[in-house]
Design a protein that fits this description.
Helix 3 packs across helix 4 and helix 4 packs across helix 5. The longest helix has 16 residues. Strands 6-7-8-3-9-10 form a 6-stranded mixed sheet, sandwiched between helices. Strands 2-1-4-5 form a 4-stranded antiparallel sheet, covered by helices on one side. It is an alpha/beta fold. The structure holds adenosine-5'-triphosphate. Adenosine-5'-triphosphate (ATP) binds next to helix 1. InterPro entries: AAA+_ATPase, ABC_transporter-like_ATP-bd, ABC_transporter-like_CS, ABC_transporter_ATP-binding, P-loop_NTPase. Pfam families: ABC_tran. One of its GO terms (molecular function) is ATP hydrolysis activity.
């Protein structure tokens, strides 16, 4: 059974089409990234999958169940990291989690376990307004995972965080993946997607324009593989890294006039730009 299944989803708001015939599936233990620029419809798709928006067309399933028929019990299998809202600023980390734990009827040990997991146990008595942005985000992740959900949704989980906190969050997500959690995340950050996700979908103007492993997508766009040559007389030019240009490169090398040669492989970011003419911001 797929953890998440999205079948032919289309959605418009005020006659503006946001999602057009979107389909994909996510397995247990898989990290799947949805990449797209601001306003591409990423949050809308999460809301459809968790049954909070009824789509104009198509169906989504979570753990085999139609999203529009999820019961209260089904929701206990899901974890959500949707934004930084929903924390009580003047309550401690512990108290914030305790409020949620009572909804799930979790024992205190589960809260402590989650706080340790995100490395906030020593700060458990601090109030939320004393936490940094990265600590708040880790608290939200603790809240989303303390009941051990089978499916975790994260909307821009590391947006605006420093590289060290981002790395910590990536390690946490990889650990959850190892335990079999299916993880669906949205991001603008193609480096995050490349290093973290098993598969990614590139979303542009309502359509999925690519969906595969980051390596497979990048290797499909080998024409973006280039070589930049700088000569000793400070002339610089970039050519495609292909068979035909190997001859040009060889001839240039024989002149002994080369200062440096840099090769540049396609990245998800450069693929996205070449396909859409726009950056992932
Ligand atoms: N309830 C709504 N009513 C009208 N328009 C909406 C509604 N929800 C979303 N939209 C519009 O749908 C489009 C997609 O919004 P969405 O929040 O899904 O994008 P996003 O990809 O998550 O963007 P970001 O990366 O900036 O969070 C936007 O143009 C937004 O204004």
């Amino acid at each position: 059974m797929n953890a998440i299944e999205v079948r032919g989803i289309s959605q418009s708001f005020l006659q503006k089409e946001v999602l057009n015939n979107i389909s994909f599936e996510i397995q247990k233990g898989e990290i799947f990234g949805l990449l797209g620029p601001s306003g591409a419809g990423k949050t809308t798709l999460i809301n459809i999958i968790i049954g909070q928006i009824k789509p104009n067309n198509g169906k989504t399933f979570v753990l085999g169940k139609n999203s529009l028929e999820l019961s209260r019990k089904d929701y206990t299998q899901l974890g959500l990291v949707l934004d930084q809202l929903g924390l009580y600023e003047r309550l401690s980390c512990m108290d914030n989690l305790q409020l949620y734990a009572s909804l799930y009827q979790l024992e205190k040990s589960k809260i402590e376990e989650a706080l340790k997991y995100v490395q906030l146990f020593d700060d458990r008595k601090k109030t939320v307004n004393e936490l940094s942005k990265g600590m708040k985000q880790r608290l939200i992740i603790a809240r989303a995972i303390m009941h051990h959900p089978q499916v975790l949704f994260l909307d821009e989980p590391t947006s605006g965080l420093d590289p060290a906190t981002t790395l910590k969050i990536h390690e946490l997500l990889l650990e959850l993946k190892k335990q079999g959690t299916a993880i669906f995340l949205t991001t603008h950050n193609m480096e995050e997607a490349s290093s973290l996700c098993d598969r990614v979908a590139l979303l542009n103007e309502g359509h999925i324009i690519e969906c595969d492993t980051p390596v497979a997508i990048c290797s499909r766009y080998n024409q973006l593989n280039t070589v930049t040559i700088t000569t000793k007389d400070h002339h610089q030019y970039t050519i495609q890294n292909n068979k035909e240009n190997a001859k040009v490169l060889f001839e240039e090398m024989q002149t002994e006039n080369i200062l440096s040669i840099h090769s540049s492989e396609p990245t998800l970011g450069s693929v996205f730009i070449s396909l859409t003419g726009r950056e992932l911001i």
